[in-house]
Design a protein that fits this description.
This protein is α+β, with helices and mostly antiparallel strands. The protein has 23 helices and nine strands. Helix 8 runs antiparallel to helix 9, helix 12 packs across helix 23 and helix 13 packs across helix 20.
């Protein structure tokens, strides 16, 4: 392998035209990937087979469904929350009706659904306003309040259980929405202006819902991403300039990871992985940091060689020979480890794993070609200038005292390393996978605050449902349908976190009369079609039970949904002609995001195991493979324990951060071990080899850690919760990785590493 890198080093430095050709080919492929990947993909695709004529008939098409527009509470674009101590008085009634009129006068508002516009519960469709007119008596308002609270579509749905919060559901006409404010703040301001004409009503307003929440998330993401990427990269550039004390060295080091990211994002367009947040957000960070780490190690070595008197070409050639093997191992272990993500069940994680492998390989090519190539040109003439003033090189001997202290207490430090890693691992295992709808929202955004208010007042903004289907042996008016729906309703009501189930049972119960459930199915014919069709489609053998879900996260709702599915299975046993399915965005997050988090966590463990095996094989030493586990694992479990003690659950952003930091921690460990094995051949003792390895790679280790921690630290002040978590974890993990490599790794090598054979003493 070393001969291969000798040849690569010679080829890279001496055959510049070939290097330029390779760079041009990869860059051209990336550019085509950005512009139109089909130009390349079409060259490898065979002619499409002729489509066979004929389609499979859908049996349900033979059962026409009446054209009825069902009344739906869960499809609004925006939700206006109105707070008041009392809505049932003359001033509030006037204000509420004025608000609706002014809102619907806006071009972007298609309609407003509120308490006074729910469909009537009688089959004749006669309007039944729930809010009396302004001239009504106080007694009539009090009776209206009781009637509204008892209405299945109002109490707990459009009016909170305590009667102090009301919802107005706004449907938008997006042909007239030309700015974010028109779908968010303008709705609130219009409502406030209308209510101001009736000061006795004392109404307060907030706006949330699907569109406002999405706009808040997108706005915060774009603003924070651009702002803190610029600040972070600017801080990295500043710190690199301070540490390198040379503009040319910084420029050359920066070009390699930048080119690696550019290549990667262009090449993966050929894979057609669309809208994968792991690829869009995490992959560029991973690629740039891995490339920066290897690039700094290579540049530090080339600068030292230039300072020793070697020419530009000789320094670039020798530097690549000395560090290239370690760079290859870091890329190999990172690619194989992240390649294990392709074994996950989640398609997102599989795609992320494939792209990681592509990105790491392309970045390796960029680092080992671009940096030596540029250093061997006129740009490399002065890259060593300022090395004598380097803060790290000047003070490296002082830090070396730490290595001496560690080697003197090797047994104690080794024991501390193993025990602390085990304890922190146990603490990390208490983390539970979780994901919330509001995780990507700014904590102080109006949509977020209103979302939490919805949780308290209504049991959640978001709706989920249980879909009920039956076979053709059940007639459309069979009493068993209502019996089964009632059983599902009872099951949902038994769960504390499930808010206000709504089904045909509630609508039938609101009809006059009484009697056993099985005798009340005939009352379905008394319901107006828009209401009945919201929960019951007999032509499709279908019914549903809707319920509200709070934004508490999948960790809280996982056991709830699990019990519901178990309960539905029990109902199926009693009613074998019926099938049930739990649906909704919250259920999807439970089924998919939970699995994504679990897959990422499992793959992280698999990556660690694969890295251990690869290092054992490459270094031809099981001992070194085992020793490498502690310094690579300690930073991750330390951060995991911090999250556990801070009260966090395990979210996607956290596992992705672990993935990024594992790649960086492994890089530093490999560079140290590779240098240690080289120094062992020329050192009189094992302790001397460890000390020389620290001297050889210590500058690069400290430099990369300082630069990355400084870059991450700037993002801690972001308004985005995800950005804060990612930055905090990144700074903590990378800082802990440096500690593990400079303290635990030397002690473990001294205690358990392969012992250097001492020459026999023949003086006796």
């Amino acid at each position: 392998m070393s001969k291969t890198f000798d040849q690569l080093a010679t080829w890279t430095v001496d055959r510049r035209w070939a290097v330029l050709l390779v760079l041009a080919v990869i860059t051209s492929l990336a550019l085509i990937g950005y512009k139109d990947p089909s130009l390349i993909l079409n060259l490898f695709e065979s002619a499409p087979e002729a489509l066979q004529e004929g389609t499979i008939a859908d049996p349900t098409k033979s059962r026409p469904v009446p054209e009825v527009n069902p009344f739906v509470l869960s499809r609004s674009d925006a939700v206006i929350l109105i707070d008041s101590e009392d809505f049932f008085n003359a001033a509030a009634a006037k204000a509420l009706r004025k608000i609706v009129v002014d809102l619907e006068a806006l071009d972007q508002v298609e309609s407003v659904t509120w308490m006074d516009r729910v469909p009537p519960l009688n089959m004749f469709g006669l309007p039944e306003p729930l809010l009396p007119r302004s001239e009504a008596s106080p007694q009539r308002y009090a009776a209206a309040k009781q009637k509204a609270m008892a209405h299945p579509l109002v109490g707990g749905q459009l009016l909170s259980d305590d009667g102090k919060t009301m919802l107005m559901l706004v449907s938008l006409d997006f042909n007239h929405v030309f700015s974010d404010a028109e779908a968010t703040t303008l709705l609130r301001k219009t409502s406030e202006t209308a209510a101001a004409e009736f000061p006795d009503a004392s109404l307060k307003f907030q706006v949330t819902g699907r569109v406002p929440a999405a706009l808040a998330a997108i706005g915060a993401h774009e603003a924070n991403q651009l702002k803190y990427q610029l600040i972070g990269y600017g801080m990295i550039l500043l710190m690199t300039l301070i540490l390198f004390r040379g503009v040319r060295a910084v420029m050359i080091v920066a070009i390699a990871p930048i080119l690696g990211v550019f290549w990667t994002l262009g090449i993966i367009n050929y894979m057609d992985f669309q809208d994968n947040p792991l690829i869009d957000v995490i992959l560029p960070v991973l690629i740039s940091l891995v490339g920066l780490t290897d690039g700094v190690h290579l540049m530090v070595q080339i600068r030292k060689l230039r300072a020793s008197g070697l020419s530009e070409k000789a320094a670039a050639r020798t530097g690549l020979r000395q560090v290239g093997m370690a760079c290859f191992l870091t890329s190999l272990t990172t690619a194989i480890g992240f390649g294990s993500l392709m074994l996950a069940d989640s398609e997102w994680v599989q795609q992320f794993g494939k792209c990681c492998v592509v990105g790491v390989c392309l970045t390796f090519v960029s680092v080992v070609t671009v940096i030596p190539f540029l250093c061997s040109t006129w740009l490399g003439r002065t890259i060593h200038v300022g090395i004598e003033n380097s803060l790290i090189d000047r003070n490296l001997n002082r830090i070396g005292v730490l290595i001496e202290a560690v080697l003197k207490r090797r047994s104690l430090v080794s024991m501390l390393a193993v025990i602390s890693t085990a304890v922190l691992f146990c603490c990390s295992m208490t983390l539970t996978p979780d994901q919330r709808q509001s995780d990507g929202l700014p904590e102080n955004a109006e949509a977020t605050i209103a979302l939490h208010h919805m949780d308290q007042a209504f049991g959640g903004l978001e709706f989920s449902r249980v879909e009920v289907r039956w076979d053709d042996s059940i007639t459309k008016d069979a009493p068993e349908i209502l019996t089964v729906v009632s059983a599902v309703d009872d099951l949902l009501r038994s769960e504390e976190l499930i808010g206000h189930p709504l089904s045909i049972r509630n609508l039938i119960d609101a009809q006059p009369g009484s009697g056993p459930v099985e005798e009340r199915m005939s009352l379905m014919e008394l319901l107006p079609p828009p209401l009945k069709r919201s929960f019951f489609t007999p032509e499709r053998n279908y019914a549903n039970v809707q319920f509200r879900v709070q934004d508490l996260g999948i960790a809280a709702y996982g056991p709830v949904f699990g019990r519901i599915e178990t309960g539905l299975a029990d109902i199926t046993v009693s009613h074998p002609a019926f099938q049930f399915e739990l649906r909704g965005d919250a259920v999807w997050r439970w089924q998919n995001l939970y699995q994504i988090v679990v897959d990422l966590a499992r793959s992280l463990g698999t990556a660690s195991a694969i890295i251990f095996l690869v290092l054992s094989v490459v270094y031809r030493s099981l001992r070194l493979g085992l020793i490498s586990i502690i310094p690579n694992f300690f930073p991750l479990v330390l951060t995991g324990a911090y999250l556990a003690f801070a009260g966090y659950n395990l979210e996607i952003v956290m596992v992705c951060n672990f993935t990024v930091c594992l790649g960086i921690a492994v890089d530093d460990t490999i560079h140290f071990l590779t240098r240690y094995l080289e120094e062992e051949n020329t050192s009189a003792s094992q302790d001397e080899a460890i000390s020389k390895a620290f001297t050889g790679v210590g500058t690069a280790l400290i430099m990369t850690t300082t630069v990355l921690v400084a870059g991450f630290s700037t993002v801690i002040f972001s308004e985005s919760r995800d950005h804060k978590i990612f930055a905090t974890m990144g700074a903590l993990t990378i800082g802990a990785a440096l500690f593990a490599d400079l303290v635990f790794l030397p002690a473990l090598l001294a205690c358990f590493g392969p012992k250097k054979q001492q020459p026999a003493d023949h003086t006796a």
